[in-house]
Amino acid sequence: MLHCELIWEIPDKEDTTVEAQNTLELPSKEVLVKLYRDLVTARRMEAKVLEIVSSVGFLSHRGPGEEVIPIAICNNLTETDCFHPNFRTYFCLFAKPPFELTDVVAMHLGRRYKHFPYLSPEYGTIGSSGTLGEPAVMYLGTALANSIQKTGDITVFVHGDGAANRAPTHEAMVVAAAWQLPIIFVIQNNRYGMGTAVEKSYNIEDLSLRGVGYGMPHERVDGNDMIATYMVARRHIERCRAGGGPSVIAADTYRLRPHYEGEKQIYRPKGEVEEWEKHDPLPRYTRQLVDMGIIDEAYVQKLEESVAAEIEDAVKKAGELPRFASYENHEKRAIAEL
Amino acid sequence: MAVLSYIEALNQAFKEEMRRDEKVVMWGEDLISMNGVMGQTQGIYDEFGGDRIKDTPICEQAIAGMTIGAAYRGLRPVGFFMHAGFMLAAFDGLFLKIGCNPASLPITVHGVITGPTEDHDHGISPEALFAHSPYWKIIMPSTPYDVKGLVKSAIRDDCPVMILDHAAAMFSGYSDGTLYTPYTDGTIMLGGNRQEVPDEEYLLPLGEADVKREGTDVTLVTYSFQVHHALAAASLLDEESISVEVVDLRTVVPLDVKTIVESVRKTGRLLIVHEAMKRAGMAGEIAFRVAEEAPDVVGSLKTLTRRLAAKNLPLAHRPDWNLTPATESIAAAVREMV
What is the ipTM of this complex? Predict the structure, then answer.
């Protein structure tokens, strides 16, 4: 069931904690159910938000099918840990403490509830970038600040297979490894950098091998397997928090939607999406929990109703908030004439 | 009052600010191992230790990006790029992520311009590139007194400030005879002149020009090392009974248009000199700002405003002073205007 063979390849460097870290302990029933609720919430909320924003012509880069990775990670983070999700999965930020569902719904509607999850530096998010990969060095700065100020917080930087090929991501890995900073690089491999398939931009299948050249422990996990991804994330996060330094995780998944909604996808082989839909993490994790005897059909039905009500409530609350005038601050700080 | 060289004044500014505020930290290439190559960080590691000053791997994008993450997480970082030309290896981070970021980020960066003694990658003056962004303040001092007061203000500023120093000043050495890299052309080390600097603390505001020499016939606006060429040219012209007023901008952004306009109102002639290439350089911007803000002055000019700048050519890897303005060419330009 678990596809997460750990490779701690650090030449000439003995890691005495390896053995302990290799012991994978199945999460508790409570955790498994919490992860399930987060996954269902993310899937339904993303669809609901899309319904609202598409009516105003918003260009959406959607991420259904890739929720497992941010949810598995965020459930292992504290309020003050730093976290950067892949740009497709910002809607999963409600799983990162202290953000709430209404925070995330409001953010997608250009409003602010209690927090603005995209940019809340004290809670570990410092925004992102249209040039994907550049946030690697920005979030590296959070890890450095946490290290200098001895806060005990760690940084998890998730990026796609496309961004993993960009120079700032490499420079971030170089510095993180040289200084042993508390940061984990997670490559969310959804098999496409816009229209270019991962086979056309890599000569390796296991993208976590990027860690080898920098001297960082690395691990590949099935990013559509909630339990495996949660356990791998926890192991790396515990290691990092204990002062073990940086590491690399490659989480394999698949981009079920076009690069942006309405894009023609002329590069996709016929039948590929349909094939991957069979591995969709939501039905897969549902089956897993049913098979383990943790939930049943009636529970699923009840959960769906409860999540739908929660989303309805969040949308209502968010809708009542004023749109914030982001440009006010822009102009206040401008130097000289506008 | 102590008599200091430029590099000593700069070094003092860094040390004083690091003593005053423990949140001030710095990193860059060879800051510890080679004292910043030009000596600007001499003694800082010994006094403040490895948490406050770090040697980075040769990763300019990381140097820039880390300042963002660290600033968001409560530090006041100073990023060193050795040569200003190397900043262009981090243009995304510097221009798009800092220069276009409306958040208040207390970031300072430092780069050195060498001018035509080195190739383009080392020698270029990039101020116009960064002046094009909404939020960078850019200081380009010319004397020990100015650099100390401006750099202290830069580090205390809650917005990003870029310090661009000129090698002719940077290679000025310490009073004990420590000279890091001897400047290739010794005759041109005007910027290395020592100057009395107050023992007590002082700050110079960003955005205030300084009239370095008063005159009545021509207003000569310039900054950085060219100030010394301008002053030398003004001395030559004095013997020919041409009176030149030299306005040292000190900060390129914000631009002190008021001081320029006051001077031009008196002299009726405006010459702008800089070491960066002429096309799309700061001179065009300065001339137009004067025209916009004081159309009456422009309407009563005695002669057309002129600009003297580097030719639109790459710098050769040899001291070719015909490429950039120098004392003789400045004097010649002034003669043509009166």
Answer: 0.93
